[in-house]
Design goal:
- The chain has about 425 residues and is α/β, with parallel strands linked by helices.
- It has 7 helices and 26 strands.
- A hairpin with a 5-residue loop joins strand 23 (about 360-370) and strand 24.
- It has helices spanning about 20-30, 175-180, 220-230, 245-255, 275-285, 315-335, 390; strands spanning about 40-45, 55, 65-70, 70-75, 85-95, 110, 125, 130-135, 140, 150, 165, 185-190, 195-200, 205, 215, 235-240, 260-265, 285-290, 295, 300-305, 305-310, 345-350, 360-370, 375-380, 395-400, 410-415.
- The structure holds adenosine monophosphate and magnesium ion.
- Magnesium ion binds near residues 267 and 314.
- Magnesium ion (MG) binds near residues 200, 201, 273 and 314.
């Protein structure tokens, strides 16, 4: 008889009772981070992608004046003929930026251009295509017109005193335009987060250096830098850290100084060269989690001095998946953003997707529309956690739930477009 082996669950096992669910891990992370309090004023032309620290309240009506939506003639609704036609005398012209300021009496009208304020005594605009121009400075109109037609009212877009953008909003181009339309030149935004990063591994070589057998180029710091630049973080790059206790400790000391967040990659497994966890528990506080996800099972979360720490796995795809699923929502919350969930859609799978029940899988896909406009998704070739081309060729994650046991061609799947991830 052979003795049974008492093994602990490893990365290859699908069902591991010691693993946290993806949702639970995210809930714990978000529950453990808070927005940085300091705000700073910035001119609006530097405010794109920053997060509002206070509500933007309008000090005026937009539009400021009731004005014409068309090129035509401004008149009083009382002059619209109930039947037949009526002639009105054209007594002047109003242009955008050059109003006609005298009163307009019954039987009179004013030539008006789009955006020009409505002259006193008028409340309706007839389109120039709807009238007949007469030689004697008059126009003839019929009854195909309702009172108030073609008029944009003062305050119809925004009322004075209305909060137009709420604190916690990440500013998009339309928001900046909106703030400009209110005449506001400077706004208060949360200060950028300070984020330190480093890569761990004896096998890592900087770009530009020749690889010896067994070496790999350090790519994780570059994907991390890209993802951090998108969220608007100030990056302190600590570089490559060798797999020794001393170097790992020194890296943490250097990274923790004055930073809000530290992110490392690699060294969080249970291998013999994995020092992140033990150094972290000496210098700070560590929670080491196995998350029921693929790729990216080992994830460390904790604190060192004042900084929040994320220890991401080393595999390049795992770094990106764990960043987008856990780190980015946390950073966005720390930056004061209130809305941090990305868009998720349903699409029909054009590929057969292999999967065993037990973990949530974040496969990489290409989302597009078929000939009839319906959303379809296909996978990007090999899906190993070291295959970075699977991310580079993709434009979305295909999220397969924990209990899913594979997807056949034609079945619906949930996708998370990269476009919604910042
Ligand atoms: P680790 O989590 O340290 O065991 O690393 C897992 C795998 O990811 C190994 O194959 C490493 O060589 C690879 N890896 C770790 N760090 C990096 C990095 N910065 N750039 C590219 N590959 C990495
Ligand atoms: Mg390593």
């Amino acid at each position: 008889m052979t003795e049974p082996i008492h093994a602990s669950p490893g990365c290859g096992d699908e069902l591991d009772p010691t693993s946290l669910s993806v949702n639970e891990a995210l809930r714990r992370i978000l529950g453990n981070v808070a927005p940085v309090c300091e705000a700073e004023p910035v001119p609006i032309d530097e405010a794109l992608n920053r997060v509002l620290a206070t509500d933007v309240v309008s000090t005026m009506n937009v539009p400021a004046h009731t004005n014409s939506a068309m090129d035509g003639y401004a008149l009083s609704a009382a002059d619209i003929p109930a039947q037949g036609t009526r002639e009105l005398q054209v007594i002047g012209a109003a242009y955008a930026g050059r109003p006609y300021e005298s009163a307009v009496a019954a039987g009179q009208c004013v030539r008006i251009m789009t955006g020009a304020p409505l002259p006193p005594g008028t409340d309706t605009v007839v389109m120039q295509e709807r009238i007949e121009r007469r030689g004697d400075g008059a126009i003839r109109l019929d009854g195909r017109l309702q009172p108030g037609d073609n008029v944009r009212y003062a305050g119809e877009d925004i009322r004075e005193g209305q909060a137009v953008l709420a604190a916690g909003r990440r500013l998009m181009p339309a928001d900046i335009g909106l703030i400009a339309s209110l005449g506001i030149a400077k706004i208060a935004v949360h200060r950028p987060l300070r984020v330190a990063i480093f890569s761990t591994g004896d096998e890592l070589k900087p770009v530009g250096e020749r690889l010896e057998p067994g070496d790999v180029h350090d790519s994780n710091r570059y994907t991390l830098r890209g993802m951090l630049q998108r969220v608007g973080a100030r990056i302190n790059d600590v570089g490559i850290v060798r797999d020794t206790r001393e170097q790992t400790r020194a890296a943490f000391e250097a990274a923790a100084a004055g930073q809000d967040v530290i992110i490392s990659s690699g060294g969080v497994s249970v291998g013999e060269a994995d020092f992140v966890k033990s150094v972290l528990s000496e210098l700070g506080h560590a929670e080491f989690w196995k998350v029921a996800m693929k790729p990216g099972r080992p994830l460390t979360f904790g604190r060192v001095r004042g900084a929040v720490f994320f220890g991401l796995p080393g595999n390049p795809v795992s770094v990106m998946v764990t960043f987008y699923q856990f780190v980015q929502p946390a950073l966005r919350r720390m930056m004061g953003e209130t809305e941090t969930t990305g868009l998720r859609l349903q699409a029909t799978s054009l590929s057969r997707l292999k999967k065993r029940p037990g973990r949530v899988e974040f496969q990489r896909g290409v989302l597009e529309q078929d000939g009839s406009g319906a959303l379809v998704v296909r996978k990007t070739g090999m899906q190993g956690s070291g295959i970075l081309t699977s991310m580079s060729h993709a434009n979305c994650f295909v999220i397969l739930p924990q209990d899913c046991s594979g997807v056949e061609v034609g079945e619906p799947v949930e996708v998370q477009p990269f476009a919604g991830l910042i």
